[in-house]
Amino acid sequence: MAKNIQAIRGMNDYLPEETALWQRIEGTLKQVLGGYGYSEIRLPIVEQTPLFKRAIGEVTDVVEKEMYTFEDRNGESLTLRPEGTAGCVRAGIEHGLLYNQEQRLWYIGPMFRYERPQKGRYRQFHQLGAEVFGLQGPDIDAELILLSARWWKALGIAEHVNLELNSIGSLEARAQYRDALVAFLEQHQDKLDEDCKRRMYSNPLRVLDSKNAQVQTLLNDAPRLSEYLDEGSKEHFAGLCELLQQAGIPYTVNERLVRGLDYYNRTVFEWVTTSLGAQGTVCAGGRYDGLVEQLGGRATPAVGFAMGMERLVLLVQAVNPDFKAPATIDVYVISSGVGTQSAAMLLAEHVRNAAPQIKLMTNYGGGNFKKQITRADKWGARIALILGENEVAAQQVVVKDLRSGEQETLAQSEVAARLALMLG
Length: 424
Ligand code: ATP
Ligand code: MG
Description:
Elements: H1 16-35, E1 39-40, E2 46-48, H2 49-56, H3 61-66, E3 68-71, E4 77-80, H4 85-94, E5 103-112, E6 124-133, H5 138-155, E7 162-167, H6 171-187, H7 194-202, H8 213-219, H9 231-246, E8 252-253, E9 265-272, E10 281-287, H10 291-294, E11 302-308, H11 309-319, E12 331-335, H12 340-354, E13 360-362, H13 369-378, E14 383-387, H14 389-394, E15 396-401, E16 407-411, H15 415-423
Parallel strand pairs: 1-5, 7-8, 12-13, 12-14
Antiparallel strand pairs: 2-4, 3-4, 5-6, 6-11, 7-9, 9-10, 10-11, 14-15, 15-16
Adenosine-5'-triphosphate binds at residues 83, 113, 115, 120-122, 125, 127, 260, 279, 281-282, 284, 306, 308, 310-311.
EC number: 6.1.1.21
Domain Aminoacyl-transfer RNA synthetases class-II family profile: 1-326
Enzyme class: ligase
């Protein structure tokens, strides 16, 4: 017998039990986004490889070793998107959405990175991202943070995420700091691990967020990014902190918070949790005023974030198990006897016409009443509609409350209104 073909490592199937929770979480997230006037943008999953190289930067983990790149049949190099910002900016430029305009956008969908799969880290994962173009003040940075804070409240996880904040300054300020940091690291090469040595020249700021304790101790004596910040960035950061204080959003300034992607400037932030083990960053973002121009558009200020949906779902499951998917159905329609099966199907259609909000499933494949009631329970139904030959003949139906066990017989014409009332 042929060997079964399995899914690709790190790329998951999401089964009905999980998708129901995902849908509820996504619904909550989208409702909040709507409440701030953000609009959805849908983008291709594949882009030309140079887009990511230019946007993310050649010397980042993502471009160096995580991209799924392949040749199209005509020899063009394409890449499965590892993140959403590059494509969003590409589309914004291509469709003239950015120049002299304000845009508040969001997207959701799969991203692809060749990483070592583990809890909270996959090769196909999902991000919900938000990107705002055309606004340069700290007020919009604050709005993105307020919006996400509202998500945590709505999902019941606010006590389990902390906001970390930093400013990485202008490109110029960062270049100066980079030189000072490299000079320092060169003097202490003996205390650096291989990863840090490699990053020291390619992407030295990433040394700051090394997980190595010895490196972190060494960094206590290193030059500090905050001492190199330009005036504009300092003011911007102070403005953001002030707004967050006014809005009552607690935060920690983490001077070693940098982003793995090259295009950020000024504000960077992360929402982190200690409830998920090593993969603790749920949502990460910041300002990227240089990217639109770098990709060929006119200079446009921009700020955004991306949230890892798998990590968010894991966190909700871990700390707020009461946030559950609703039952698949409200009502299960049961029938037994000659001519009752078609009557059950038609009654269910009648109820769906009259009360479209009610979720009904009709029993197919027969079975005695007891067996059908068991199926009703399995699907989480609160109510069973029961049709036997007598009910069909009298155009009636038995309405059974599966929790209390109470039941009553009603005319079929009254049942939709009765169900709507019971399910309130
Ligand atoms: P990390 O340091 O965890 O690798 P990153 O800096 O590569 O994160 P970003 O590129 O900022 O991550 O992506 C934003 C968010 O997307 C992350 O904070 C995380 O929640 C999620 N994310 C990133 N990579 C993965 C992955 N491989 N699997 C699941 N979620 C991911
Ligand atoms: Mg990563």
